[in-house]
Each structure stands twice: as C-alpha cells, then as structure tokens.
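Hi R.,

Here are the chain sequences for the assembly we discussed:
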Amino acid sequence: MVFEVVVASGKGGVGKSTIASSLAVIMGKELSNLVVIDADVDAPNLHLMLNVREWVDELVIRSARVAKVNADKCVGCGLCENACTNRAIKLVSGKCVINKYLCEGCGACVLVCPKKAIELYEVISGIVKVGLTEFGFPLITASLPPGRANTGKIVTEERNLARERFKGFTIVTDAAAGIGCQVIASLVGADLALLVAEPTPTSFNDLKRIHRLTKHFGIPSVLAINKYDLDQYMTDKILKFAEEEGIGVLALIPYDSNIPLSMARPTPFIIQYPESKATGGLIKLCTEILKILRNWDSWRREHRVKPIPYIPKVIKP
Amino acid sequence: MEFPVVKKVVVTGGKGGTGKSVVAVNLALALAKVRDVILADEDVEAPNDHILMGLDYGDLREREEVRVALPFIDVSKCVKCGLCSRVCSESAIVITSEGLPLVIPRLCSGCKACIYACPTKAINEGKRVIGYTYLTPLNIGDVGLTLVTGVLIEGEERSYPVVIATDERAKKYAKDLLIVDTAPGSSITVAASINEANLVIAVTEPTPLGAHNLELVLEIASGLGIEYWIVLNRSSIAPSKPIKKVLDKYKAKLALKIPYSMNILESYIKREPIVVYKPETNEARAFFSLANEINEVL
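And here is the predicted structure of the full complex:
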C-alpha cells in the first residue's frame, strides 16, 4: 500500500517545513521505503533542510507556452489586449507587447489577431528533480523559472514521478501555503492531511480554509499546534474547533527559541537540537503519525470522511 | 515606462510567514497619516490583513463576485470539428465518443480561446464565480484608510483572476497611494501583483530559506524593471550573511531591519497594529521612518 501524508497549513511560515523535515527524518529511520516531496514549488526549501548530496535524476517539463509578437506584422489594433484575460498585453507606441511574467500561453490572442502576428512558443515550465538526502531517503523537488504558471501541474508531475520511480514507498509531501492549485494538486488522492497551525488569529483563519478543502476531497485531517504556549486562549479556540470538526490533535509543540536559531543552518530541528524544548513535541507528533500508518486500515475505518463535494457557482449564458 | 499618477507600493517576499502582512498593514497605516491610502490584500488564498486590523470576514463590506468565463456548447450549432478541444491549453474540453465537445469546468481557466476558435459560433459564454472582492473603509485609532480584500473560494484553484480583480478594484478607488500585500512564493500571481509597481518592498528573514525565496522574487521585480527595497525581519535570530549575498547580487537596498520583537508578536496576537496602538515603541518608530522614506521617494 502506498501511504501519502501531506503537511499543509493554509498560512505560510507556521512550521510546515520544520515539521515535514523532522517527520521525514524519523519516518526514514523507521521505514525502509520513504520518499519526500517538496510541493511548495515556487518557494522550495526542503533541499536545503534535508541537505541533498547528489541529484540523481531530472525531468524537464515543457508543457508551458508563452505568446510572442512579430512586431513587423502587428498593426496595433488592440484586439489581443482586450482578449487577454491575464492582462499580459499592453499596446506600447502602437505595437502590442506581451509581458512574459504574466502570460500563461492560453492562445486567445493568437486566435483574435487579424494579422497572424502572434505565435505560441513552448517554454520550460519547470524541472522536477530527484535528490539523495543526507538521511538516505530520496527527495523530489522542483525548480521553476520565477513568475511561472502551472505550479499545480508541476506538483502533479512530482507526485507521478514519486509513484513511478519509488513504487510502494511511503510519501511525505510538504505542501505550499495557500489553498490554490498547488495545494489542491498536493491533496488530491492523498491519504492523510497533517494540518499545522499556530495560535494566532491569522493561522486559525487559514486553518479553517485548508480544512474545508480537505473535506471537499474526503481526506481525513489530523492537527499539530506549533508554538501552542504563545497564546493559550487561541490554542483553546483551535482545540475546540478541532473537536467540533473531529480532527485528531496529535501534538502540541511548545515555542522554542532554538527553532528560529536552527534556521540559520538548515538541518532538521530534531537532529540539530535533540534535547530542546520543542523536540519532544515533534517526536511525539512523528510517533503518532507512524502509529496511524501502522494501523492504517482500522484507523481509516474509524476516521472515514464523507466528501463534501465542491459545487461551483455557475451562471449560464 | 509610463507612471500613473497613483503610486503603487507592493509588499512581497517569497517565503511564507516572514512578516509581509505585518509590514504591509503597518506601512499602510503609517502612510495613511499623510496620504490617501488604499491597502489591497492580494494574498487571496490566505487573506489576513483585515484580521491583523481586528476585523473578521463579516466586517468586510461591499462584496463583489469575481467571475471568469465558462464555455457552454450549443450542440445544435456544433459541427464536431474538435478545434475547441485542440486550442484549449488546459485540456478542459474533451471530445466524447459521439464527437461532441464536453467542458470540464474545474480545469477551465476562462481564457475564451475555444469561443474565439469555434468556426460556427457554437460556444456561448457563461460565467463561474471563483472568488470575491470586498471594499471596506476603516478607521483605526485616528487613522483612516480603505481596505480592498480578495478572497478565493475554498475549492477553486485559480487565484490569478481573483488577484487581478482585487488589483483592478483597488486601482479604481485609489486616488493617491496603493499599497499591495502579495501571496508568498514567486509564481505568476505574485508577478501580477508586482506588475506596474513603483516600488517593491521585499520582506525576508536572515535564513538560507528566506534568502533562497527572496532571490526568486527579486528576479521577477528586476525582470519587470521595478525598484526594490529589502526589509529584514527578525534580523536578530541569525547572522544575515545569506541575505547579504542576495543583496549584493541584486544591488538591493536594505531599507529596514526589524529585530525579533515581543511587541510585534503581541500586537499580532491582539490584532492591534503597532503603529497605532504603541506608536512610541522602537518598532513603530522604525515603521514610521520607513514610511517617511517611501513617501519621499514617491
């Protein structure tokens, strides 16, 4: 059985990568077959945290296209500017100019141009890479040219590669912040969502949003509250929410001033600080996840989530 | 490059949780003392500026839907040429065994390429709601500003159109100064927020992770030809060597260093921006002096 756990939080900077890297190290010790995916493809970090020693494979993804104008043919009619829903085209002194950072290559401009002055070119949308970490297990990550679209597609490519190359391996995925295409592409078809929150109003708000998303996909969620002792009032509010929603709380991790310090030298926290305040909480969290994995069939039966399908609001022509 | 009369300052940074929203909110409030400010929260997947100013979702005003086009096939006019499916860059139109096109709404980006391509005008434009924008006039302490907030509906994938709708709505109301808070990362949505800015404020932290993600964002800003300043948050937690390297490479100005601060953390949790509620603290003074500097440059 492939077991895939996704670490997600909605809000950025609450401790996803700290938790994911420690989780990976502990699971890597317990399991012989583990692969880690960094699905935060436009701000990837795990290759630094897990210290990739050697890149063993890379896959160039060329699905993206961008539009280019032949200025000699352009008559400056402005039809393309109107058609571009990305607002990537501007008329500059009578010629259309395409902003390469904003074009997603949909081709609408090509179709409306009366002079056939615009063509689509294939570009590299990203490179998916397989690296061997210092801890023995492989990491799948990606690098994207800045300003690129298709981040969800790259995540899907990463997950496909993980399943093909590392058949039957347990997968730990570190998702991006937010709730958009990257995060959806990380969650679809995963087994378990490990949600990370901190006791701040903003994190609580984003936790509710990411949890609604996991319910759309029928994925059971568990929760870790990071820096829980920073504000007991907010922690209690989050705990109450978790209880109402049936989210199992696996660990409360205390605020530890060594965590920000540890970031100066990116190494999984539990390795750098094996005896620090937060280490116990992190280890407990990982042990709980391993317990769920080992009793997966019965755990899943007890925590079955009925998907609440997302119904888009559509206005007919 | 032409500059509009309204100035646009964009707060971004790359890595999540570096303090973008804290900087955006405090700068907006500090500048609102001397200018007419619109603050646009374009982190539409996790919009939080209103929360930092003590508001909940229910307090946001003047909701408008963000609609994107959704093709509807008129089967009576369709000649089964399959062109719509071929031009669709998102593979959102499949051809059934009867040769008729079938739209998969979840994949559709709303670009309308299929509508333009159809030789028999058999595709009509419907709409689909993917998010909302709000416009909320605010008074915090003795400072007034207008907050424009973009929200992506949970379950929708495409934040880009919501970012654009938020940006345009904010621009429509802005008379003097527009301050934008972006999403984390360095994707096309962040590029959309940065586009046409007069100044980019990139907030980061002194870690290799912060430096790595900062570099990706500066790549966009420099590619778009926009001036950028750096704010180094939690500067006391680690040596700033990795950030210094990026600063040198991109010849970026280090505009402000904010040491790790319990005052800021407290104001964050209490949802009371520090420049309004504790204007005498060193942290608030630092925001005021950065605001002054920005004001002078503009």
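The CA atoms of residues 229 and 252 of chain B lie 6 Å apart. The mean pLDDT of chain B is 92.

Let me know if anything looks off.

Best,
T.
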